[in-house]
Amino acid sequence: MTMKPPKPRNFAAFPTLISSYDLKGHECEQIVIDMIETYEKTGDHALVHEGQSSRIIGNEMFLNDKRLVSLWKTIQSCCDEYSEETGIDYTLIDTSWFNRLAKYGSVDSHRHERSVISGAFYPKCENGSAPLIFESPLQHYAMNISFIKQTRFSAYSEVFVPADGLLILFPSWLRHSVPKNQSDKRYTIGFNTVWSGIKNSDESWLGWSNNDW
């Protein structure tokens, strides 16, 4: 009699951590929405279609405005948790900016160079807002595999539907994109981080600014 195979022990080797946090109702929620809607120093960005971005030069620090200190600290604490969970050295929020996507707007596939952890915070996303889609880094190595069903091991993408107050953290090397948006308002604050080596670092060196709005 043929022996039935024993139940296997399966291992998800080399997982990639993407973390989400619900920050809806944050004390800076309406402040940041008002800032985005009245901000005049926006322009076109090569990756952003049918939308506006405050990332023009590349050294923008939108979250460093004094009115957003509490939001900066909340997001920074989430980055500290991400570092703890992944076992990487601690990082500090560096550059930050926002994108306003109109209906049918999109963002091309990209990764965040010269950064460790990157994030997307959604202060305002109306119904129909396009998802954030992450691409599997293993896809290029699976050239001889023919998948016949969708499992966590066969997925080539991970999809996150934005919502008001949602924060998503991910490794900066992970490619991602946004397909055509179907809402009139989809606001995203993007940011990068740099090595700090110190947990809960003193942020006084950042020089909180009074930006001209």
Element layout with pairings:
Blueprint: E1 19-22, H1 29-38, E2 43-45, E3 48-53, H2 69-86, E4 91-110, E5 117-125, E6 132-135, E7 157-160, E8 166-171, E9 176-178, E10 186-195
Antiparallel strand pairs: 1-8, 2-3, 3-4, 4-9, 4-10, 5-8, 5-10, 6-7, 6-9
Number of domains: 1
How many strands, what sense, and barrel or not for the largest sheet? 10 strands, antiparallel
- Kindly provide the radius of gyration, computed on alpha-carbon positions and rounded to a whole number of angstroms: 19 Å
Q: What is the helix/strand order?
A: EHEEHEEEEEEE
Tally of helical runs: 2
CATH superfamily: q2cbj1_9rhob like domain
Mean pLDDT: 91
Explain what this protein looks like in three dimensions:
It is a single chain. With about 210 residues, the chain is an alpha+beta fold. It has one domain: Sandwich (Jelly Rolls). The protein has helices at about 30-40, 70-85, and strands at about 20, 45, 50-55, 90-110, 115-125, 130-135, 155-160, 165-170, 175-180, 185-195. Strands 1, 2, 3, 4, 5, 6, 7, 8, 9 and 10 form a 10-stranded antiparallel sheet that branches. A hairpin with a 2-residue loop joins strand 2 and strand 3 (about 50-55).
